[in-house]
Inverse folding.
């Protein structure tokens, strides 16, 4: 099977975004990579049936590449638009979209701008803390995450991410406290229990008196297994290797294996959330019918896998509304052409006035829905 390769470049504010797409016959997928100033930022994979012909694979490579290029262009347009409008709600939502897509620098720019406008924007602080975990600036991550907990102490996610910041900053004891608090608020918080297990292992490693920590290791194993019981996605081969290492008190090995499990779980979740938050990117752009249709096809495929996922139903409704907005625009355009041809058509003139007003009201409603999410 021949390998097809495509490459495109988008330049914005002294930054170069390079999109490279190709097919890999060995794994039966089309792969796309995005580099920002030479650094790999995002990777995407699109599996295809093994029986696809060369022509079908080439078509898939072209369409996947074009979709990714369009996505980058829309994100950059949304970035500029949001900074110009200055809505802290939209800035923070877009900041989340850029974060989950892996564009950390752009996310931090948007989030800092949101906070400069609204210093009590807890959501922006929360995402900002997570960007600092990604950049390994853990002191800053602790600072921002602690601020979110101060603002919204009843939010389990805020305690959890503060726990993660403490954990990677080497403070297992404080991390354990925050994970425990998250689990108290939400008894079925699998990530919090997994974090509690990691914090106990880290404490045992730092104490360096392994024989004294039989109970700690037992509790750690219990918390980690509880996380997997609540969320089966945790239970992978690496997870089972970690359990085995824990059983023989190989603490460093167990800790490193469970960190890998954490990273894999986080990447999967970030990918899911990236798809959700992309709707705020789309909302900042006048979308073509083709872009809307492509987005709807993706959402329909996701609904096929998760028919009870409310957010997917909500977003596909948003797509239908954008399609309706485009139809109203087209109606206005053709009424205007009709009047240009025959200005005496009073009924058309009245229709144009009515539909123009409806389009204005509809756009305002759509804008409110967008900000609320």
């Amino acid at each position: 099977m021949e390998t097809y390769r495509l490459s495109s470049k988008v330049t914005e504010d002294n930054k170069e975004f390079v999109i490279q797409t190709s097919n890999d016959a060995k794994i039966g997928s089309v792969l796309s990579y995005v580099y920002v100033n030479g650094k790999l930022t995002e990777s995407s994979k699109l599996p295809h049936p093994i029986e696809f012909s060369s022509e079908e694979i080439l078509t898939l490579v072209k369409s996947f590449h074009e979709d990714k290029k369009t996505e980058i262009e829309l994100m950059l347009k949304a970035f500029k638009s949001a900074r110009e409008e200055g809505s802290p709600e939209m800035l923070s939502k877009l900041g989340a979209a850029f974060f989950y897509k892996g564009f950390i620098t752009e996310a931090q720019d948007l989030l800092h701008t949101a906070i400069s406008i609204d210093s009590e924007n807890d959501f922006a602080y929360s995402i900002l803390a997570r960007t600092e975990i990604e950049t390994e600036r853990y002191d800053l991550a602790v600072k921002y995450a602690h601020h979110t907990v101060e603002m919204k102490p009843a939010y389990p996610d805020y305690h959890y991410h503060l726990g993660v910041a403490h954990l990677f900053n080497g403070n297992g004891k404080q991390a354990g406290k925050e994970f425990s608090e998250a689990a108290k608020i939400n008894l079925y918080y699998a990530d919090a229990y997994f974090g509690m297990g990691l914090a106990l292992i880290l404490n045992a490693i730092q104490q360096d008196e392994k024989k004294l920590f039989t109970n700690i290791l037992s509790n750690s194993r219990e918390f980690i297994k509880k996380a997997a019981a609540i969320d089966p996605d945790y239970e992978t081969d690496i997870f089972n290797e970690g359990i085995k290492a824990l059983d023989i008190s190989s603490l460093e090995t167990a800790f490193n294996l469970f960190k890998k499990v954490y990273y894999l779980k986080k990447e999967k979740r970030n990918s899911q959330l990236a798809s959700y938050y992309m709707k705020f990117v789309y909302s900042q752009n006048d979308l073509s019918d083709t872009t809307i249709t492509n987005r709807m096809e993706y959402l329909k495929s996701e609904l096929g896998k998760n028919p009870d996922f409310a957010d997917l139903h909500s977003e596909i409704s948003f797509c239908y509304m954008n399609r309706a907005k485009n139809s109203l625009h087209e109606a206005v355009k053709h009424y205007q052409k009709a009047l240009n041809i025959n200005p005496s058509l009073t009924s058309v003139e009245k229709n144009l006035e009515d539909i123009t007003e409806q389009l204005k009201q509809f756009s305002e409603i759509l804008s409110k829905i967008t900000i609320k999410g």
